[in-house]
Amino acid sequence: MKTLADLGDLRGKTVLVRSDFNVPLDGDVITDDGRIRAALPTLTALLDGGAKVVVTAHLGRPKGAPEAKYSLAPVAKRLGELLGKDVALADDLVGDSAKATVATLGEGEIALLENVRFDARETSKVDDERAALAAELVGLGADAFVSDGFGVVHRKQASVYDVALALPHAAGTLVEKEVASLNKAIADPERPYTVVLGGSKVSDKLGVIANLLEKADNLVIGGGMVFTFLAAKGYEVGKSLLEEDQIPTVQGYLARAEERGVSIVLPTDIVAAEAFDKDAAFEVVAADAIPADAIGLDIGPDSAAAFADVIKASRTIVWNGPMGVFEFPSFAGGTRAVAQAMIDATAAGAFSIVGGGDSAAAVRLLGFDEDGFSHISTGGGASLELLEGKTLPGLAVLED
C-alpha cells in the first residue's frame, strides 16, 4: 500500500484528501470530535509540507441532495480550531463555490468541500456515474489523492475508490496506522487471542464470527446479540432483542467452537429491566432465568468479572461492540468492565484494539484515557470487514 512518502514533494501541489468526519451532532454541536482529531496528523503533515489541501468527507445519511442538518459547517469550525488556522468551507462539492474556494488556496492552506453525499453519484452502484463525479473532483485541480478516511475504505464510492484510479494516490497516516494495527491482530496475533463482540444484532457479525472461529482462542459475547446465543441454548430471553431466524446459525457456531476448541464465553447473569428506559427499574437475574416480561440491557456483575478475567489473561484483544446500553448509566457496567480490563491487560503488555463505532464512543463517554489502549479504530464497519477477512476496495485501490 502506497504511503505519503511515495508521493514525494507536494509543495505547491493541490492534494485531495478523503477524511472521515462523520461525527455525532446535537443540533450543530459536535458531541465527539474523535474522528476529526484522528485526521490531524495527515492534514498537518501535508500543510507543513506546503500542499494546498482540499478535503472531502460525509456526514450522516443524506439522500443524494443537500440537507442543512448534514452540512459540514460544524466540522469546518472544529477542524479550524484544532489546526489553529482557517478552514474555508465551500458551499457545494464540485460547483462554482468549490471551484472558487480551491482556486484561492495558497501553499499550506486548507479547504473543506461540502458533504460529498449531497451528490447521489458518490454512492452510486453504477461505475460510470461514480467515475463522472470523481472526474469533477479531480477537475478542481487536484494533483494527488490521499485516502485517510478509514471509516469508509470498505465502501466502493467515488471519493474513496474512483478518485484513486484517476490520480497518484497514497494512504494517509491514519489509514496506514489502522491497517498496521489490525493486521497485527489478524495475521499473527500473540496468544491467547481474545475477541470481544457486542452490539445489537448477531446478523451484523455473522461473517466475523465464522472467520474468528478459525483464528481466535476466545470469543466473548455480550450486548443485544447475546440473547440470540442464549436462545440458541434454549434459554428464555423475555422481551430482549432476539433474531429468531439466526438461532440455527448460532447453534452451528456453538458446535463449531466446541470442535475447534475455541471458548465462547457467554454471560451467566443479566441486568434485566422492565422497559428500555434509562430510569427503568431493573434486577440482576441468572442468564437462564430472564423473566418473560423483562428486557436484558446489560451483562450482570458476575459476567463482567468473568469477562474481565478472560481479557486480562490474553495477549491480544480486539473489542467491537458494547456489552449493554452504555448510554444509560444503570446499564453501562458491563461495557465499563470490558474497557477497564483491556486497559489493565495493555498495561501488562498485551496488544489491544478498540474496533471503532460504538465501542470507541463508549470509551470516550465513560471517561477512559484513550492512551490506555494500544489502538482505537475510527471505523467500526471497516474493522469488522477486515476481521471477517474481506478485501476492502478503498485499500485495494491504494496498492497499485
Structural features:
14 helices, single chain, alpha/beta, six-stranded parallel β-sheet, 400 residues
Determine the structural class based on helices, strands and strand pairing. alpha/beta
Q: Any low-confidence stretches, pLDDT <50, length ≥5?
A: none
Biggest β-sheet strands, sense, barrel: 6 strands, parallel
Q: In what range is the share of β-strand residues?
A: 15-25%
Which range best describes the helical content: under 10%, 10-25%, 25-40%, 40-55%, 55-70% or over 70%? 25-40%
Q: Could you give the count of β-strands?
A: 17
Main sheet: which strands, in order across? 5-6-4-1-7-8
Shape, per Cα inertia axes = elongated
Radius of gyration over C-alpha positions, nearest whole angstrom: 22 Å
Quick structural gist:
By secondary structure, the protein is an alpha/beta fold. The protein has helices at 34-48, 73-83, 96-103, 127-138, 158-166, 173-187, 206-212, 226-232, 247-260, 301-312, 333-347, 357-365, 380-388, 393-396; strands at residues 14-18, 25-26, 29-30, 52-56, 87-89, 110-112, 144-147, 169-171, 193-197, 218-221, 263-265, 269-273, 282-286, 295-299, 316-320, 351-354, 375-376. The strands form four sheets. It has a six-stranded parallel beta sheet with strand order 5-6-4-1-7-8, with helices on both faces.
